[in-house]
Amino acid sequence: MLDLVIKNGLVVTKTGTARMDVGVVDEKILLVEPEIDDRPATRTIDATDKIVFPGFIDAHTHMGIPIMGTRSIDDFESGSIAAACGGVTTIIDFTVQEPGQTLQESIDVRLAKADGKSHIDYALHVNVTDQPQARVAEIPAIVEQGFSAFKVFSTYKQAGMMIAWPEFRNVLEAVQRQGALLCLHAEDDATVEKDTAANIVAKRRAAICHPRSRTPAAEAMAITQAADIARELGAQLYIVHLSSKAGLDAALAAREQGAKLILETCPQYLVLSEACYLKENGHHWITTPPLRTEEDCEALWDALSQGQIDVVATDHCPFTRSQKDDNSGRFHLTPNGIPGVETLFPLLYTYGVAEGRLSLERLVQVLATNPARIFGFCGQKGVIEIGADADFTIWDPEKEWRIKPELLHGNADWSPYVGMTILGAVAQTILRGFVLAEYGDFVGTAVRGNLVLKNESNQTLRN
Ligand code: URP
Ligand code: ZN
Ligand code: ZN
After folding, report:
1. What is the H or E stretch that residue 270 is in?
2. Model's pTM, two decimal places?
3. Can you list the domains of the chain with their CATH numbers?
């Protein structure tokens, strides 16, 4: 007896697409065959004319984190419901290391926030923001528990989160020694501080001054600096939310010289531009790094379709309009971050696949297979393979809808993508065999999200 059969769908893996049936038992994929015969199943989903993807992974979210005296407005409950409605079955969020906290304490606090709340599976990257040097000794025990990645910031000095380059080297070395991966938010803080101060002093405080204070040059500078250190150590380094052509060029040049960089970008850097900052409520779009020019978007699309960018994730960090409005007219005091987890896959399908920039297989690589491989969930997540978790996103390419806040499920009362037309709809999102969402409705009947831990060494994407 099967728990679930998905019949007649176009099943997409990272290497190919074929009409297949998929059978599920005990939360795992048991069968992937051209035709599953008349084996009885508790539930059958007819996926005729639909595309069956592996459940997608959003490798960069921030549920309920403190920023500028407030908190991002989704917690693990609301954020995971939004994710499920958008076809995401696993998120990778981040710990928040409060001053004086050990890494272990920060993990325990964060896990308590997700446990029993998240409707989808979740993993954690471990932020190292306070006294990084003192925390190095903790890294082996944390990797031993199955946490596969750490994250540092080369900026946010004023918020007490920045790591200096000598400490960065030591953390990277310790992380590499354990076979884990370091992620970096790359912006040169001195450049950001100088440009920000110049704008503030000159009373240039409108939202458009955000991209002029956190420039592509600052991103490129930090990437080059970090890549040099990574190359000397022979360590892989994962650059989060790459936003600009200058940053991309710096990363590609570093790769040419032997740096093993893994690159992530986000939908906002592909489909939005800094023109958003000139809108009436332009400050709502303040996120870091800032939105860039259309030329930057095109460069990132090209790199994505050519395989130079490895992952697309959202940096989901939503605030309500009123949270954003509290300091409108002062770009440097507006809480930075935008919602995105629910629109990740619909946007990438619409502007990537439907516009001919990405094949279905490439979409699966950047939203599923690559993050699973990079963060150590190989064979469990991100694939439609026998033995893997039965996570699926079934897409109905015949539907069409327009993004409106009232159609989305997160706690933000606006969307940066409002008005954009999506070519298709998530028909079902399935987590370990349980249907969580159907055509925009959350239908989960119990909280089933589990912590996902690394199940093998992170696989090298870049040699
Ligand atoms: O502005 C953003 N993206 N806020 C979240 C923190 C970060 O830098 O990723
Ligand atoms: Zn960041
Ligand atoms: Zn982030």
Report:
1. helix 268-271
2. 0.98
3. 56-374 (3.20.20.140)
